[in-house]
Amino acid sequence: MTCHTPHPRPRLLSITWPIFSEHLLHASVGMLFVWLTAQISDSTAAAFGLSNQIMTFFIILFRLVGVGASVVITQYLGGGDREGAERIARASLAAGLLLGVISAAVIWLGADSLLALLKLPEDLRPEAKPYLLLLGAALIFDSLNATMASVLRANTFTRDTLLLIVAMYISSLVIGLPFMYGWFGFPNLGLVGIGIGFVASRAIAQVLYLWLWRRRLGIRPHIEDWWKIRIESLREMMHIGLPGAGENIAYRLSFTANLAIVAGFGATALATHTYILQISYFVLLCGLAIGFGTEIVVGHLIGAGQLHDANRLVRKSLRFGIAGAFCVAGIVALCGKSILGAFSSDPQVILGGAKILLILVLLEPGRTFNLVVINALRATGDARFPVMFGVFSMFFVSVGLAWLLGVHFGLGLIGVWLGFASDEWVRGIAMYVRWQRKAWVPHARKTRRRIIKQRVETFPEPAEAT
Question: Looking at per-residue confidence, does 120 or 147 come out higher?
C-alpha cells in the first residue's frame, strides 16, 4: 500500500511540554538519588556521581543511532513517506543493540582503568566499581530504549514516552531502595542496590517500548531486525547521527577532562561539583526541551519543503528558550545556599557551590542559545559544521580555560565553570551566525530531494493505460 499522505505538522508546544516533563523527571530522580547517597556520606555521593558520568558518556554514544534515526524519520514523515520512516525505525534496532553490547563490554573489561582515568580517589573505588559493573548491564537496555524512544518522539508520540519513563523510574525506586537500605529483609548493598534497580527497571522499560511500537506505530520487530545491519538505512542515519554523536562524544571527552581537573582539587570539590551538576540540569530543562522540540518540528518542515516556516520557528524558539533559561537560572542563584544545604552540611560545599550557581546565570542562556540552533541545523541536514567547530571550542575554550583559570590561576571550581560558560557562548554565537547566513539551506534542499527520490523509487507512478 502506498502512503504519500504527509504526517500532520506537529506544534512546538505539544511536542515540547512532554519532553520538558520527561527531562524534569530525569533531573528529579537524579537529584533524588544524589540526595539519597549523600545521606550515607559525601564520599558515596561523589562515587555515585563519577560512576554516572562514565555511564552518561556511553548514553551519549547511543545518540549515534537515536539522533540519526529521529531526524531522518521526521524528514520522511514530513515528506509523506511513512514506509521510509518504518524502514529507518527497523534498521535502528540492530545498530542500537550492537552499540549497547559494545559499551557494556568496555565497562566490564575496563572498570578499574576508567575509574583511574577519572582520578577517583583510591578509597572510593571499592564502592564505585561494583556499581559501575551493574551500570554496564543496564547500558544494553539503555541503548535499545533510547533508540526506540527516539523513534516514538519522531512520530510525535512524546506523551507516551513520558508515561513510560515515569513507569521506569517508579520501578527503579521500588526495586532499588530495599536493596540500598536493607529494607524488608533484603541485604544492605548501598550503591549496588541502586544498580540492581537500574538494571531491572531498564529491562521492564524494554518490554513496554516493544508494546508501544506495536500499539502506536504498528511495528512488530522481526528477528532479523535485532541483528541484521541494513547498510543503506544505516548510511542515512549516520549522515546525521555520526556528526551528532561526534559532537556529544567530544563534549563528554572535554567534560571528562574537566572532571579529572576537578577530581584533582579533592573530595570536597568533587562532591560540590556533583551537586552543582544536578542542580544545573534543572536549569537546563527549558532549553533542552525547546531544543529537542525544535529539532523534531524543523525536521518535519524540511521534509515538507517549508524552509521559511523552519526559519521562523527557530527564531521563536530562541526567544522563549533564552528568556526561560535566564529567569530559572536567576531564581536558582538567589536560592543557592538553601538548595545546597539540602545536600550537604559542609560549609565549604555550600559557600563554594553558591558562588558557582551565580555563574549559571551567565552559562544557561548561552547553553540554550547553542542547543536550539545546533538541533535546528542538524534537522536540516547540516550536521558536520556543528561538530567541527564544537570540537575546537570544547577543548580549547572549555578545557583550556578550566586549566588556565582553575589550576594555573588557582580559581578552582569557579575557573572550571567559567570555562563551561565561555564555551557555550562561543559555540552558540558561531551556530547562530551560520543560521543567519542561511548556510543550512543547500543541505535542506538536498534533504528534500533525497526524500522525493526515495519515495518515487519506492512507489513508482503506475504507467498510463494505452
Answer: 147
Q: What is the pLDDT of residues 275-298, one digit of tens each?
A: 888 788 778 888 888 988 898 899
Judge whether 166 and 204 are in contact, CB under 8 Å.
no
H/E segment holding residue 165:
helix 158-181
DSSP one-letter code for 226? G
Mutual angle of helices 441-458 and 82-117, in 10-degree steps? 130
User: Could you tell me which of 50, 17, 20 has the C-alpha nearest to residue 281?
Assistant: 20
How many residues in total does the chain contain? 466
Q: What percent of the chain clears pLDDT 70, i.e. is strictly above it?
A: 95
Q: Phi-psi bin for 305: left (phi > 0), alpha (psi -120 to 50), beta? A: left
pLDDT at position 8 over 70: no
pLDDT at position 126? 77
Q: Which whole-number Å values give the CA distances from 306 to 29, 131, 422, 431, in the listed order?
A: 39, 48, 34, 21
Q: Is 225 helix (H, G, I), strand (E, B) or coil?
A: helix
Cell 552499540 -> residue:
99
Give the count of beta carbons closer than 10 Å to the beta carbon of residue 312: 12
Using CA atoms, how far apart are residues 76 and 454, in angstroms rounded to an integer?
Answer: 9
Distance separating alpha carbons of residues 298 and 285, to the nearest angstrom: 20
Are 380 and 440 within 8 A, CB to CB?
Answer: yes
Cα-based distances in Å from 9 to 15, 276, 308, 374, 396: 11, 38, 14, 21, 40
Q: Which of 360, 356, 350 shows the shortest CA–CA distance to 268?
A: 350
CA gap 354, 454 in Å, rounded:
54
Q: Which of 221, 191, 151 has the alpha carbon at shortest distance from 48?
A: 191
Q: Extract the C-alpha cell encoding 346.
A: 559542609
**H-run or E-run covering 127:** helix 125-154
Closest CA to 278 of 332, 233, 197, 237: 332
How many Å apart are CA 303 and CA 294, to the nearest integer?
14
Instruction: Compute the distance between CA of residue 344 and CA of residue 331 in angstroms, rounded to an integer.
Output: 20
Name the amino acid, one letter, at 196.
I
Q: pLDDT tens, 425-463?
A: 999 999 999 999 999 999 889 888 887 877 666 655 544
The C-alpha cell 544494553 sits at 140
d(CA 35, CA 40): 9
